[in-house]
Fold this sequence. Notes:
By secondary structure, this protein is mostly helical. It is built from 5 helices and no strands. Helix 1 runs antiparallel to helix 2 (44-60), helix 1 (3-27) packs antiparallel against helix 5 and helix 2 (44-60) packs antiparallel against helix 3 (65-82). It is elongated. This is Acid phosphatase/vanadium-dependent haloperoxidase.
Amino acid sequence: MNKGVYLALLSIGLAQGVKIPIHYFKKKEWRPELFFGTGGMPSSHSAGVSTLTTYIALQRGLPTFDFALSLVYGLIVMYDAQGVRRQTGELTLKVNSMNELIEKIHKEESVEFKQETPKKLKEMLGHQPDEVIGGALLGIAVGVIGHLCTKKNRKALNFRLRF
């Protein structure tokens, strides 16, 4: 794999890892399982695509096809993360609250009604705009740092090859 892919995966992992302490500071609740979940601050989707796009821009330049493709792909991913996926999460909240209401209604009836309770749907699917921006900023930082590290390694390699 190339360094851009490694950096993007690293950025996704960092974003997932940072969700745990951010959640702890907001809710005073330690939840390590957030590392494997979707949604929350920062967006790992945004972090990954922003890292890759930044790295490509710095390595190959802005007028390249690689950068254009990565930028458009990244914008679609970030739009989807805060648009469609967030709306799905909000719809899920409503469905879950309807299930709770139906359970309350059935408990108050005198007729016994047996039905398996459906699993509660996952409510945290998408991202708020600030979570997408947070992920994008993290991704840009990782992309810049990755480029600088690669640049230094290249200079050291050229120096070694000359002597």
